[in-house]
Write a structure and sequence with these properties.
- This protein has helices at 22-33, 81-90, 149-160, 212-221, and strands at residues 12-19, 36-39, 48-52, 55-62, 71-77, 94-102, 106-112, 118-124, 139-146, 164-169, 174-180, 183-190, 202-209, 225-233, 236-242, 248-253.
- The protein is of the alpha+beta class and 260 residues long.
- It has one domain (1-260): 2,3-Dihydroxybiphenyl 1,2-Dioxygenase, domain 1 (Roll).
- The strands form 2 sheets. Strands 2-3-4-1-5-8-7-6 form an 8-stranded mixed sheet, with helices on one face. An 8-stranded mixed sheet has the order 10-11-12-9-13-16-15-14, with helices on one face.
């Protein structure tokens, strides 16, 4: 079991889902990934923490603001949310939600990078982030679908101190990973030629499953939709899906285990 005790600065440390129907989202993801759901008190707006084998893996809360849809949000670990928010603003980002205190858990902010992708900042106190990675029922990979690849990679390198490694740099496949070259935590994909018109840059989350085909079938049984059937690549076996509320996520086959 890959238990995380310390996250690397500037890299993903938490994911949560904003939903127009919290009970429905809670039930779907609990059933799909074998998660238990702990609901916090009113001081935290009834925020739900999902756990796998007793370890925190993701969160869930109601959408904030008019017109917001159901979607997953990736948070990057920062030392000082307010300072990083201002640095991001100077580097061309927009502030979606300014730095705020989340009880005794930490401080957060939400920005849109220069390419329009929305990402969270997390400055932790009691809540350190997800406790499992690359395991069944845990976040396994984080990916930015970039419309302005060069500018967005430069932004994260400047503001968050990323170290990147180029996997491909052609018109057909332009991709860089970020983090420790021996154990990167995510990647940036030049998706400008692939995304439908009107779809902005965005972050996506991959969750670990024991069997991508079985998990994809379970998505459908639970009322979700498989956008892309399981496929194999040199990087693993994956599937793309949406939950019953339209939230996008990926399945990443990570090996044996008792789950979807």
């Amino acid at each position: 079991m890959t238990v995380v005790t310390n996250h690397r600065l500037g890299e993903p440390c938490w994911v949560d889902y904003s939903s127009t129907d919290v009970p429905r989202a809670r039930d779907f993801y609990s059933a799909l990934f074998g998660w238990t759901a702990d609901t916090a008190g009113e001081e935290y707006g009834g925020y739900v923490t999902f756990r796998r084998d007793g370890r925190a893996v993701a969160g869930l809360g109601p959408v904030m603001g008019d017109g917001a849809g159901d979607n997953w949000l990736t948070y990057l670990l920062v030392e000082d949310a307010a300072q990083t928010e201002h640095a991001a603003l100077r580097a061309g980002a927009q502030v979606i939600a300014p730095t705020m205190l989340v009880g005794e858990q930490g401080r957060m902010a939400v920005i849109a990078d220069p390419g329009g992708a929305v990402v969270g900042l997390w400055d932790p106190e009691q809540h350190r982030g997800f406790d499992l990675v690359a395991e069944v029922g845990a976040p396994a990979w984080h990916e930015l679908y970039a419309r302005d690849f060069r500018a967005q990679v430069d932004f994260y390198t400047k503001v968050f101190g990323w170290t990147t490694q180029v996997l491909g740099d052609t018109a057909d496949f332009r991709y860089s990973t970020f983090g420790d070259p021996d154990s990167p935590s995510g990647g940036v994909f030049d998706a400008n030629g692939m995304l439908p018109e009107g779809v902005p840059s965005h972050w996506v989350v991959y969750f670990g499953v024991a069997d991508a085909a079985a998990a994809a079938q379970r998505v459908v049984e639970l009322g979700g939709t498989v956008i892309r059937d399981p496929w194999d690549s040199e990087f693993g076996r994956f599937a793309q899906a949406t939950d019953p509320l339209g939230g996008l996520f990926f399945l990443h086959e990570v090996g044996s285990g008792s789950a979807a």
